[in-house]
Amino acid sequence: MEVKKSPKADLETKKPVFMQIGLVVVLAIVLIAFEWSTTDVDASQFNMMDEVEAEEEIVPITRQEEVKPPPPPPPPKVTDVLNIVDDDVEIDEELDIEDTEIDEDTEVEFDITLEEEETDDAPVFFIVEEMPQFPGGDTELRKYIAQSVKYPVIAQENGIQGRVYVQFVVGTDGGVTQVKVARGVDPNLDKEAIRVVESMPKWKPGKQRGKAVKVSYTVPINFVLQ
Protein backbone atom coordinates (compact mmCIF):
# COMPACT_ATOMS: atom_id res chain seq x y z
CA MET A 1 0.00 0.00 0.00
CA GLU A 2 1.49 3.29 -1.00
CA VAL A 3 1.35 6.30 1.29
CA LYS A 4 0.07 9.29 -0.44
CA LYS A 5 1.58 12.54 0.89
CA SER A 6 0.53 15.97 -0.11
CA PRO A 7 3.35 18.11 -1.39
CA LYS A 8 2.10 20.95 0.83
CA ALA A 9 2.51 18.86 3.95
CA ASP A 10 6.07 17.93 3.15
CA LEU A 11 8.36 19.80 5.53
CA GLU A 12 11.50 18.97 3.68
CA THR A 13 10.73 21.69 1.22
CA LYS A 14 10.62 24.28 4.07
CA LYS A 15 13.88 23.20 5.77
CA PRO A 16 15.98 26.08 4.35
CA VAL A 17 13.44 28.55 5.67
CA PHE A 18 13.61 27.07 9.17
CA MET A 19 17.40 27.13 9.05
CA GLN A 20 17.41 30.80 8.19
CA ILE A 21 14.93 31.62 10.96
CA GLY A 22 17.05 29.72 13.46
CA LEU A 23 20.22 31.55 12.45
CA VAL A 24 18.45 34.88 12.72
CA VAL A 25 17.24 34.03 16.25
CA VAL A 26 20.70 32.86 17.37
CA LEU A 27 22.37 35.98 15.98
CA ALA A 28 19.79 38.17 17.70
CA ILE A 29 20.48 36.45 21.05
CA VAL A 30 24.25 36.84 20.59
CA LEU A 31 23.89 40.52 19.78
CA ILE A 32 21.65 41.07 22.76
CA ALA A 33 24.18 39.26 24.97
CA PHE A 34 27.04 41.47 23.77
CA GLU A 35 25.03 44.65 24.05
CA TRP A 36 23.78 43.78 27.55
CA SER A 37 25.32 46.24 30.04
CA THR A 38 25.51 45.63 33.81
CA THR A 39 25.99 48.30 36.47
CA ASP A 40 28.48 47.51 39.25
CA VAL A 41 27.15 48.19 42.69
CA ASP A 42 29.68 49.55 45.18
CA ALA A 43 29.59 47.32 48.24
CA SER A 44 31.18 50.02 50.37
CA GLN A 45 27.96 52.01 50.15
CA PHE A 46 26.11 49.18 51.84
CA ASN A 47 28.80 48.96 54.51
CA MET A 48 28.51 52.68 55.14
CA MET A 49 24.75 52.38 55.41
CA ASP A 50 25.14 49.54 57.90
CA GLU A 51 27.63 51.56 59.93
CA VAL A 52 25.33 54.57 59.94
CA GLU A 53 22.42 52.44 61.08
CA ALA A 54 24.59 50.78 63.74
CA GLU A 55 25.77 54.16 65.00
CA GLU A 56 22.21 55.35 65.26
CA GLU A 57 21.27 52.31 67.37
CA ILE A 58 24.07 52.79 69.92
CA VAL A 59 22.68 54.25 73.13
CA PRO A 60 25.02 56.87 74.53
CA ILE A 61 26.35 56.15 78.03
CA THR A 62 25.42 58.86 80.43
CA ARG A 63 27.04 59.39 83.81
CA GLN A 64 25.54 61.22 86.68
CA GLU A 65 27.57 64.20 87.59
CA GLU A 66 29.12 63.95 91.03
CA VAL A 67 27.82 66.57 93.38
CA LYS A 68 30.78 67.97 95.23
CA PRO A 69 30.15 68.96 98.85
CA PRO A 70 30.41 72.63 99.55
CA PRO A 71 33.85 73.69 100.74
CA PRO A 72 34.23 74.08 104.50
CA PRO A 73 33.95 77.58 105.82
CA PRO A 74 37.25 79.32 106.28
CA PRO A 75 38.60 79.27 109.84
CA PRO A 76 37.98 82.38 111.83
CA LYS A 77 40.77 84.82 111.75
CA VAL A 78 42.63 85.09 115.01
CA THR A 79 44.09 88.42 115.71
CA ASP A 80 46.81 88.67 118.25
CA VAL A 81 46.32 91.46 120.68
CA LEU A 82 49.56 92.70 122.05
CA ASN A 83 49.39 94.62 125.27
CA ILE A 84 52.49 96.71 125.62
CA VAL A 85 53.46 97.12 129.24
CA ASP A 86 56.16 99.44 130.42
CA ASP A 87 59.03 97.47 131.85
CA ASP A 88 59.71 99.65 134.84
CA VAL A 89 59.76 96.91 137.47
CA GLU A 90 63.03 96.68 139.27
CA ILE A 91 64.19 93.35 140.66
CA ASP A 92 66.04 93.63 143.92
CA GLU A 93 66.55 89.91 144.44
CA GLU A 94 69.78 88.41 143.31
CA LEU A 95 70.28 84.79 142.43
CA ASP A 96 72.96 83.01 144.39
CA ILE A 97 74.59 80.29 142.31
CA GLU A 98 76.75 77.87 144.19
CA ASP A 99 79.58 76.23 142.38
CA THR A 100 79.67 72.60 143.43
CA GLU A 101 82.04 70.10 141.97
CA ILE A 102 81.25 66.38 142.04
CA ASP A 103 84.09 63.90 142.08
CA GLU A 104 84.04 60.17 141.59
CA ASP A 105 84.25 59.70 145.37
CA THR A 106 81.18 61.85 146.05
CA GLU A 107 78.31 59.81 147.47
CA VAL A 108 74.77 60.69 146.52
CA GLU A 109 71.97 59.40 148.70
CA PHE A 110 68.61 58.55 147.17
CA ASP A 111 65.57 58.03 149.35
CA ILE A 112 63.20 55.91 147.28
CA THR A 113 60.21 54.25 148.93
CA LEU A 114 57.99 51.95 146.94
CA GLU A 115 54.53 51.21 148.23
CA GLU A 116 52.80 48.15 146.96
CA GLU A 117 49.07 48.57 146.65
CA GLU A 118 46.61 45.80 146.05
CA THR A 119 44.77 46.26 142.77
CA ASP A 120 41.67 44.60 141.43
CA ASP A 121 43.67 43.40 138.42
CA ALA A 122 45.93 41.22 140.60
CA PRO A 123 45.78 37.56 139.49
CA VAL A 124 43.80 35.04 141.54
CA PHE A 125 45.61 31.77 142.27
CA PHE A 126 43.99 28.40 142.92
CA ILE A 127 47.04 26.56 144.26
CA VAL A 128 49.95 28.34 145.97
CA GLU A 129 52.90 27.34 148.11
CA GLU A 130 51.12 28.43 151.32
CA MET A 131 47.34 28.07 151.12
CA PRO A 132 45.08 30.47 153.08
CA GLN A 133 44.16 29.30 156.56
CA PHE A 134 41.24 30.08 158.82
CA PRO A 135 42.28 31.36 162.26
CA GLY A 136 42.82 28.19 164.29
CA GLY A 137 42.82 25.82 161.30
CA ASP A 138 40.18 23.59 159.73
CA THR A 139 38.81 22.49 163.12
CA GLU A 140 37.95 26.05 164.07
CA LEU A 141 36.48 26.60 160.60
CA ARG A 142 34.06 23.70 160.99
CA LYS A 143 33.16 24.87 164.49
CA TYR A 144 32.52 28.40 163.24
CA ILE A 145 30.24 27.18 160.45
CA ALA A 146 28.27 24.91 162.80
CA GLN A 147 27.71 27.77 165.26
CA SER A 148 26.88 30.40 162.62
CA VAL A 149 24.48 28.50 160.37
CA LYS A 150 20.79 29.16 160.97
CA TYR A 151 18.65 26.61 159.18
CA PRO A 152 15.96 28.41 157.13
CA VAL A 153 12.46 27.70 158.45
CA ILE A 154 11.04 27.25 154.94
CA ALA A 155 13.65 24.60 154.14
CA GLN A 156 12.86 22.81 157.43
CA GLU A 157 9.13 22.76 156.71
CA ASN A 158 9.73 21.39 153.19
CA GLY A 159 12.32 18.88 154.36
CA ILE A 160 15.07 20.34 152.13
CA GLN A 161 18.64 19.41 153.01
CA GLY A 162 21.96 18.99 151.23
CA ARG A 163 25.49 20.29 150.88
CA VAL A 164 26.19 23.75 149.46
CA TYR A 165 29.65 24.52 148.04
CA VAL A 166 30.59 28.18 148.45
CA GLN A 167 33.53 29.65 146.52
CA PHE A 168 35.29 32.87 147.58
CA VAL A 169 38.60 34.70 147.29
CA VAL A 170 40.94 35.32 150.20
CA GLY A 171 42.68 38.64 149.53
CA THR A 172 46.22 39.65 150.34
CA ASP A 173 44.96 41.17 153.62
CA GLY A 174 43.03 37.99 154.53
CA GLY A 175 39.61 39.46 153.78
CA VAL A 176 36.90 37.31 152.16
CA THR A 177 35.58 38.68 148.85
CA GLN A 178 33.78 37.57 145.66
CA VAL A 179 31.55 35.08 147.51
CA LYS A 180 29.37 32.92 145.26
CA VAL A 181 27.72 29.50 145.20
CA ALA A 182 29.72 26.95 143.21
CA ARG A 183 27.07 24.22 143.59
CA GLY A 184 23.79 24.88 145.34
CA VAL A 185 20.83 22.91 146.66
CA ASP A 186 18.00 25.37 147.31
CA PRO A 187 17.84 29.19 147.06
CA ASN A 188 17.15 29.51 150.78
CA LEU A 189 20.04 27.24 151.76
CA ASP A 190 22.33 28.94 149.23
CA LYS A 191 21.50 32.36 150.65
CA GLU A 192 22.25 31.23 154.20
CA ALA A 193 25.57 29.67 153.16
CA ILE A 194 26.66 32.92 151.47
CA ARG A 195 25.74 34.91 154.60
CA VAL A 196 27.85 32.65 156.82
CA VAL A 197 30.90 32.89 154.56
CA GLU A 198 30.64 36.67 154.17
CA SER A 199 30.58 37.08 157.96
CA MET A 200 33.84 35.12 158.42
CA PRO A 201 36.77 36.85 160.15
CA LYS A 202 39.94 37.53 158.22
CA TRP A 203 41.99 34.55 157.15
CA LYS A 204 45.73 34.10 157.06
CA PRO A 205 46.44 35.04 153.43
CA GLY A 206 48.04 32.62 151.02
CA LYS A 207 51.61 33.21 149.87
CA GLN A 208 53.49 32.52 146.67
CA ARG A 209 57.28 32.89 146.82
CA GLY A 210 56.96 34.59 150.17
CA LYS A 211 54.50 37.23 148.88
CA ALA A 212 50.83 37.47 149.84
CA VAL A 213 48.54 36.81 146.88
CA LYS A 214 44.85 36.34 146.17
CA VAL A 215 43.72 32.72 146.40
CA SER A 216 40.41 31.13 145.42
CA TYR A 217 38.99 28.83 148.12
CA THR A 218 35.92 26.58 148.33
CA VAL A 219 34.13 25.56 151.54
CA PRO A 220 31.32 22.95 151.76
CA ILE A 221 28.45 23.71 154.15
CA ASN A 222 26.27 20.72 154.99
CA PHE A 223 22.60 21.28 155.88
CA VAL A 224 21.13 18.20 157.67
CA LEU A 225 17.76 17.93 159.36
CA GLN A 226 17.84 16.20 162.74
TrEMBL record:
It comes from the Bacteria. The keyword Transport applies. Pfam families: TonB_C. SUPFAM superfamilies: TolA/TonB C-terminal domain (SSF74653). It is a single-pass membrane protein. One of its GO terms (biological process) is transmembrane transport. This is TonB C-terminal domain-containing protein. Residues 136-226 form the TonB C-terminal domain. Keywords: Cell inner membrane, Cell membrane, Membrane, Protein transport, Transmembrane, Transmembrane helix, Transport. GO terms for cellular component: outer membrane-bounded periplasmic space; plasma membrane protein complex. Belongs to the TonB family. It is found in: Cell inner membrane. The chain crosses the membrane at residues 21-38. GO terms for molecular function: energy transducer activity. PROSITE patterns: TONB_CTD.
